[in-house]
Specification:
Elements (H helix, E strand, L loop, with lengths): L8 E8 L5 E2 L1 H15 L20 E8 L5 E6 L7 E8 L16 H12 L4 E6 L2 E5 L3 E5 L5 E3 L10 H9 L7 E3 L2 E2 H6 L2 E6 L3 E8 L2 E2 L5 H15 L4 E2 L7
Parallel strand pairs: 5-6, 5-13, 9-10
Antiparallel strand pairs: 1-3, 2-15, 3-4, 6-7, 7-11, 8-9, 8-12, 12-13, 13-14
Length: 249
């Protein structure tokens, strides 16, 4: 939960497997470093300790955070609520701070938690965040859509969304799969004509949006199926996983 203002904390949420290895840790570490610099938070010199969960048999999530007033990492474990499924979503106003703060994983996360609650109150799984009539982010992932011309659209970072780790992996892999990626505004017209709309994230994986604000959206499954295949392959690669923190030998 948020403690006070944005500069009170910086965090990331990582995917952990049964052996306690973390997916894409170098990318998470780089993002933590960049966001901490923007928030003027000094990170501990030693990495956090993330190990196997004694009560979890499958993959799970760890929220890794650092407070502005402490010199140690805080690691909180939680289960995955849904992953690689068809979902329903609602739109809510995007929270805004300032240019330096927008897009960072910071301590004033209440607005994102409120968006998640709004989705749950509507019987939905995700909230899409709208600013000036364009979708800029989601409460727990990154929106991506397949346009009717076969291109994949993502909102540019200048719109204020968080630079998602899963989205970055897919952005690099999709062109080789025949789906070029464009950074441009996800405005009402673009969303209305899209062939498919998905949200991707560390916890949720690749989820196809079946229904947005009570209306069916898109008829294709080409983007979600391709992204799920690419991520499944990504997770089979040994280089994807890292041991974070010391281990007993």
């Amino acid at each position: 939960m948020a403690t006070s203002g944005p500069r009170s904390e910086v965090f990331t949420t990582v995917l952990v497997n049964e052996q306690g290895a973390v997916a894409d840790w170098p990318a998470h570490q780089q993002r933590l470093t960049e966001h901490a610099k923007r928030l003027r938070i000094a990170l501990p010199k030693q990495p956090p300790v993330i190990s196997a969960h004694p009560e979890q048999s499958g993959w799970w999530l760890a929220r890794v955070s650092c407070s502005a007033t402490e010199t140690t990492w805080n690691v909180e474990q939680r289960t995955i609520s849904f992953r690689n499924e068809g979902i329903d979503a609602v739109t809510v106003p995007a929270p805004r701070w300032n240019e330096r703060t927008n897009g960072t994983k910071h301590g004033d996360w209440t607005a994102y938690q409120t968006a998640t609650q709004a989705a749950e109150d509507a019987g939905c799984d995700a909230a899409l965040l709208v600013h000036e009539y364009a979708i800029v982010d989601a409460d727990r992932g990154t929106p991506m859509l397949l346009d009717d011309d076969g291109t994949v659209w993502m909102a540019p970072s200048s719109e204020g969304g968080v630079d998602g780790i899963t989205a970055a992996v897919l952005e690099a892999l999709l062109p080789e799969a025949g789906l070029p990626v464009i950074k441009s505004k996800l405005n009402e017209r673009t969303v209305a004509r899209c062939a498919e709309f998905i949200v991707v994230g560390t916890g949720m994986g690749v989820c196809r949006i079946n229904d947005l604000d009570g209306e069916s959206i898109g008829s294709s499954e080409a983007l979600s199926s391709t992204c799920q295949r690419l991520m499944a392959q990504h997770f089979t690669e040994e280089s994807t996983w890292s041991v974070v923190g010391p281990r007993d030998v």
